[in-house]
Every structure is written in structure tokens, then in C-alpha cells.
Write a structure and sequence with these properties.
Elements: E1 7-11, H1 26-38, E2 43-45, E3 49-56, E4 59-66, H2 74-83, E5 91-97, E6 105-109, H3 117-126, E7 132-137, H4 147-151, H5 157-180, H6 182-189
Parallel strand pairs: 1-4, 1-5, 5-7
Antiparallel strand pairs: 2-3, 3-4, 6-7
Helix pairs in contact: 1-5, 2-3, 5-6
Amino acid sequence: MDASEVVLVVGLGNPGPQYAGNRHNVGFLVLDELADRVGGKFKAHKGGAEVVEGRLGGNRVVLAKPRSFMNLSGGPVVAAAKFYKVQPGSVIVVHDELDLPFQTVRLKLGGGENGHNGLRSISKSLGTKEYLRVRFGIGRPPGRMDPADFVLRDFSTVERKELAFALDHTADAVEALVSHGLEAAQNTFH
């Protein structure tokens, strides 16, 4: 990415303390780690997100956590992208991924939403699927548990023991993506 352009890094989650530790909120958790790295605190922004402006690897970034529920994330993402004049190709969305084992990180540009309502809302609002994704594996639900119930549950005790490391690793992947681009970051993290 061009060092002069702003990169919008969006973490997906649901607002409110009752959702804070949920698997579905891993995007928020990664952005909290990134906010620590840039030395900023999230502040309300008129577009419906909480934002932190800073630098990662010498690049200007805006970290954004939509204040809407997950399935309405598109509106706040588009509002932030317009306000900061960010094109879809410079939007990075950090989200949970059922089809990856716990704490696996995968980076990609575009693709389908795989049933993820937050991504579906963002794709519809941006008018394209061509934005960057940082996928954090949360694994599949056990037995016959409904995936919708699984993503809204907190991480297990065993998972929580690894979570801080996994969030740090994912934040490293975001930083590499911002600093070195998709292919170099994929070569490092895949």
C-alpha cells in the first residue's frame, strides 16, 4: 500500500459488555491490541463507529469498530471510508471465521462472505467484495450446536489460555498487511 494513503482497519463485533468476550467479537479484540500499538484510545465518530487514528509501520491508519450490531456493519464502514477518503482496496476487515481452526490466521482480498452477516453488510454497502480480510479462525461448533449460538458464546477456558498470543499474532498480520502488502503478509503468516 502507498505510504501516503490512509488504510482503514475495521474490526467486527457486537457492541455492549454482554458480547465483549464472544467469538464473534474477535475483530474488536484485535483492534484493541492495534490501538495499544498506536498509542490511542477509541473515540466516537459521527459515522457510527469508534475510531483511533495513528501509524502502523510508518503508514497512516484509522482503526474502526462499528457501534452497530454485526449484521449492520456496512453503514459505519462506508461512512468511515468516505470521511477518511479510503477506497475499498485499502479497507481491511478483521473478523471471526468458522471454517478455520481456532487461532489460525488467513489473509485474502475479496471472495465470498461464507454466511458471515457482517461481511455481507459491508460488501453490500461498499458495492464490492474487493476489500482485504483478516480471518481469525474460531473453529466449528461442537456436535449439533447452531453456528449462530456458537459465535455468540465466549471463548472456552482452554481457548482463553491461548487467546492473548493469538490476538497478538493476528495484530502482527494486520501490521504486515498494512506495511508490506497482501502477498508478502500471506507468505509470512500462511
